[in-house]
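Please review this one:
***
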Amino acid sequence: MRHVALQDPNRNKIAQWLNVTGQKQGVFQGSLQLSDNPPLGDWKIDVDIGVSTVCKSKNLTLLDGN
């Protein structure tokens, strides 16, 4: 892996990890703190593996913590 980027539904780049190396079997683990009210909708994850870029979208929904 070379880099991983996270984009919110408003197309803002929220996080980026560069020069990702040493990951076993292609697994990347990262973390970040979101605001109390992050935008809901489809968040996009881009992974550049050197040969190609893989893009996936995941829908962020709000869960009641009670």
Summary: The chain has a mean pLDDT of 81. The chain has no helices and four strands. The first strand starts at residue 3 and ends at 7. Residues 1-23+41-60 form one domain.
